[in-house]
Write a structure and sequence with these properties.
This protein has 235 residues and is mainly beta. The chain has helices at 3-12, 21-34, 105-110; strands at residues 39-52, 58-62, 64-74, 79-98, 114-132, 138-158, 161-166, 174-190, 193-204, 220-230.
Length: 235
């Protein structure tokens, strides 16, 4: 791995505060220009369904959206390193029989034992180590992911309307886990460019919520389908 690849890898591991939507715009503008046989950028978008273990009053999962940019560093003909940053990493669920616990007695009374939607958004930073089969149409990947909490909101659904509470005080600031990924590559999907479709499973290894919300060990997991569009034009 040469100095150029090390710099690119470091770029993808920068803190979330330095990697906002501007980076995605730059990737769109310059993606083809920086692409080479050994390195390219890509845009990724998809959806996921999340589950939290040992969570009381769990009703069902809700669709979450993933959006980010990825890097693809060629190590050999069949092995790659793919660091990514997802600026939008939703993990949403619906709960039953939840009661608001605010400093306002009237709010607590109006939103007592109601349904609620918990909407959590992370900056997700997975680093995948990938193997590409000899035909070049299947890629198998495994690697760690660290996630930084961007927002956490509980939306209480009462008879008289909705009440949205900032739920960060009950949510831990980061999550860590492992991702397994299998991708099918549609070659020449758009002229001379490929499209990758990924099936991913994430398993978190630590508690997501603080004990004043849930006494259980609430590890997160999700299944996602992601479309990836590498910015590289083949001859």
């Amino acid at each position: 791995m040469n100095k150029r690849h090390i710099i690119c890898l470091f770029f993808f591991l920068l803190t979330s505060s330095l990697m906002q939507g501007q980076a995605a715009i730059l990737a769109l503008i310059f993606g083809d220009k920086v692409a080479s046989e050994n390195f390219n950028l890509g845009m990724e978008i998809g959806g996921n369904f999340t589950h939290y273990s040992d969570l009381e009053n769990f009703d069902r999962t809700r669709l979450g959206i993933n959006f980010g940019i990825s890097g693809n560093i060629k190590v050999s003909d069949n092995f790659y390193i793919s660091p990514s940053i997802f600026f939008l990493g939703n993990r949403n669920i619906k709960l039953d029989n939840i009661s608001a616990q605010t400093s306002s007695p009237s709010l607590n009374e109006n939103f007592n034992n109601v349904s609620a939607e918990l909407n959590m958004n992370y900056y997700d930073v997975p680093i995948l180590f990938s193997y590409l089969n000899k035909k070049g149409n299947l890629k198998y990947s495994l690697g760690p992911q660290i996630s930084f909490l961007k927002s956490s909101e509980m939306v209480y659904l009462g008879e008289e309307g909705e009440f949205t509470e900032d739920f960060k005080y009950n949510t831990k600031s980061n999550d860590f886990g492992v991702i397994a990924d299998i991708a099918y590559i549609f070659k020449n999907f758009n002229g001379s460019k490929d499209m990758h479709i990924h099936a991913r499973y994430y398993y978190g290894t630590q508690d997501v919520f603080k004990s004043n919300f849930s006494n259980g060990t609430n590890k997160s997991s999700y299944f996602s389908v992601v479309l990836s569009f590498p910015f590289i034009k083949k001859d």
